[in-house]
Design brief:
The chain is mainly alpha-helical and 238 residues long. It is 46% helix and 7% strand. The protein is globular. It binds iron/sulfur cluster. The site of iron/sulfur cluster has 10 residues, from loops.
Length: 238
């Protein structure tokens, strides 16, 4: 549970830091809620535990069972960063599946409290239409990409990939039987085959402006404590 504690510290410190930006995102605004969201195992476990606490086993199992299949992301965030830091030319093609996210119901997120970081980071300073793009604050994208790297580092050697695929892959673990009951075994096998493995942090890709914007957020995260140790110590393997 130490990883879950660190994940929630990252979410909380991010929420505090992100209050400086004026965003227009509101409930029922579902433009970015597609099948393309990626995450880690530690974020998936958080969602599955929430579903059990809320009595959403049947609803989530059926939603995952009926979700459309989508092509997997080509590389993890840390694999992409490692290639860039090694000077490799890399332009991965990201799948663009606009099918709705499986946990969207009546235009609302049913797991909003525990939504993964990829959903939290997606903000816009202007209303975006279904065919429009979000407008993010200057230097913001670089900072939140670095946080994605940190969360991948936290979940290293575990699954990394599309949110629905990770949830499907995890439901056969002990404790989630009431969710797995509603999912076809072949759906789980296919989802597992689309997943990548989370990698350790190879370094960040921040430019000077992004590093200055990121500094207070990283300081707040690294100096927070979980189980009597700082997050920085834990993430460094201490
Ligand atoms: S998890 Fe929630 S916030 Fe994220 S894409 Fe799905 S419905 Fe939207």
């Amino acid at each position: 549970m130490q990883k879950a504690a660190i994940l929630n510290i990252i979410y909380d410190r991010y929420d505090e830091w992100a209050r400086q930006f004026a965003v227009v995102c509101r409930p029922s605004c579902r433009t970015c809620c597609t099948r393309n969201v990626t995450m880690t195992t530690v974020e998936g476990e958080e969602i599955l535990r929430y579903a059990l606490r809320q009595g959403l086993e049947k609803w989530l199992g059926e939603a995952l069972n009926s979700t459309v299949e989508t092509a997997p992301p080509p590389v993890t965030t840390n694999q992409f960063a490692a290639a860039c830091l090694a000077g490799q030319e890399i332009e991965p093609e990201w799948p663009a599946n606009q099918a709705p996210c499986p946990v969207l119901a009546d235009d609302l997120c049913r797991i909003y409290t525990v939504r993964p970081f990829a959903c939290r980071l997606f903000v816009s300073s202007q209303r975006c239409r279904l065919d429009g793009a979000a407008v993010m604050p200057a230097a913001y994208t670089g900072v939140v990409s670095a946080i994605c790297q940190l969360i991948e580092h936290l979940g290293q050697r575990q699954y990394w990939g599309n949110m629905a695929d990770i949830l499907l892959a995890l439901v056969t673990r002990p404790g989630y039987e009431k969710i797995a009951y509603f999912v076809a075994p072949e759906k789980i096998t296919a989802a597992r085959n689309r997943l990548l493995v989370a990698e350790p942090l190879p370094g960040f890709l921040l430019d000077e402006r992004e590093a200055a914007l990121a500094a207070p957020l990283f300081n707040a995260i690294f100096h927070s404590e979980a189980g009597g140790k700082t997050v920085e110590t834990i993430l460094n393997g201490g």
